[in-house]
Amino acid sequence: MGKINKTNAIVLWAVFLSFLALGMPDGAFGVAWPSIRYEMHLGLDRAFILVVSHSVFYALSGSQMSKLASAIKLPNVNILGLGLILLGIGGFAVSPNLYFLVIATMILGIGMGLVDSSLNAYAAKYFAVKHMNWLHCFWGLGGSISPIIMSQMILLVGWRTGYVSILVVQGILAAFVLITVLKGMWLRNAEKADEKVASSAPRKFLVEKRYAYMQIAIFLIYAGFEYAVTFWTTSVMLEGRGLAIEVAGLYPAVYLGGMTAGRLILGYVSDKLSNITLVRFGLVLAIGGLVVLMVSNNIIGMAMIGFGFGPVFPCLMHETARRYSPEATTKLVGYQIAAVGVGVGISTFGMGRLLEGISLEVLFPVVIAAMIVVGIINEVIEAAVRKQGIA
């Protein structure tokens, strides 16, 4: 993206606010679940049904995004996704039992998959890498705001009011985004960017299918094991190493704080450094943090992991637009988002069996191995990029 004018600045903020809305359901559910299951007399394990339902429909909608975008354009896919998120959140607020919660979760998963994939595709094609990093900062912001809203509403009124409050906030955000779409700002911004690309020298792109499959595999492996760090580290510290709950609970908070800081700070220097440089730096720093936690309880290791992982996902997503043609990028981003959902599901199940069957201590070595594989696959693709002279 070139110089920021009024139109593309407004579109940029619309994209940011859409991602803020995308992050809110994730943060709210964890806080609301104890109250939900108490009111509905549900077992603790019933949360797994909702998580799986969400992951499946999130992956399915992400994988079909490009077909939908070819029919109604990316901005409209985002609006449709935001509408479904509102419907899903409203469904949670009025659900009388688990069956309705599952339906609401499915709707929410479809909406979140569409928003995530369409926004990443749009940003990868039309915005700079620093904006991609900041975009994912807003997801973290949404994930941080919604637990505060939900916890306060539970204390004052109840979890249903918490979801209604989040629905109101998201409705305001969606209304702003809808206005920008109806005024044609997204399309004008895209047309100007496309005209600039068309007037420049012809570019080369990767066309071999094996590289596209490798690109998708990176997101499946990376996202799955990134999530494993968030999900399982507290268990390792609490049950495996005997730390107090108030100490063990700090690890995911430090991780998310480090990730947000990494995306914010490295976003400022991304214009001077390439995506591949930031990915390499992030993976090396994260692996260093994993080694620290493998041999000690030093929470600095968790900060290193979060800061290192910060730029990896957005930079890899942005790199898709450099490596592949615009037509292939839209389709690939959808499949990459689908791979994220599949990776999280496989990792959650597989790591759970592994940690239970062997030892909680295998978490960090396994994640280190996974990140090395991610780095190797990415270097193979980058070698093909250099060999073919892709700018």
Task: Kindly describe this structure.
This protein is an all-alpha fold. It has 2 domains: about 5-200, MFS general substrate transporter like domains (Growth Hormone, Chain: A), CATH 1.20.1250.20; about 210-385, MFS general substrate transporter like domains (Growth Hormone, Chain: A), CATH 1.20.1250.20. It is about 85% helix and about 0% strand. The protein has 15 helices and no strands. The two termini are about 15 Å apart.
Structural topology:
Layout: H1 6-40, H2 47-72, H3 74-94, H4 98-126, H5 129-156, H6 159-182, H7 185-199, H8 209-240, H9 245-248, H10 250-269, H11 275-295, H12 300-309, H13 312-323, H14 326-357, H15 363-387
Helix pairs in contact: 1-3, 1-4, 1-5, 1-6, 1-7, 2-3, 2-4, 2-14, 3-4, 3-6, 4-13, 4-14, 5-6, 5-10, 5-13, 8-10, 8-14, 8-15, 10-12, 11-12, 11-13, 11-15, 13-14
Annotation keywords:
Growth Hormone, Chain: A; 391 residues
Any idea of the CATH class of the largest domain?
Mainly Alpha
**Helix count from the secondary structure assignment:** 15
CATH architecture descriptor text of the largest domain: Up-down Bundle
Question: From the alpha-carbon coordinates, what is the Rg to the nearest angstrom?
Answer: 21 Å
CATH H level, superfamily name of the largest domain = MFS general substrate transporter like domains
Shape summary: globular
Binned, the helix content reads over 70%
* Chain-averaged pLDDT: 87
Order of helices and strands: HHHHHHHHHHHHHHH
- Which class best fits the helix and strand makeup? mainly alpha
User: Strand tally, please?
Assistant: 0
N- and C-termini, Cα separation: 16 Å
Low-confidence stretches: none
How many domains would you count in the coordinates? 2
Strand content: under 5%
Determine the CATH topology of the largest domain.
Growth Hormone, Chain: A
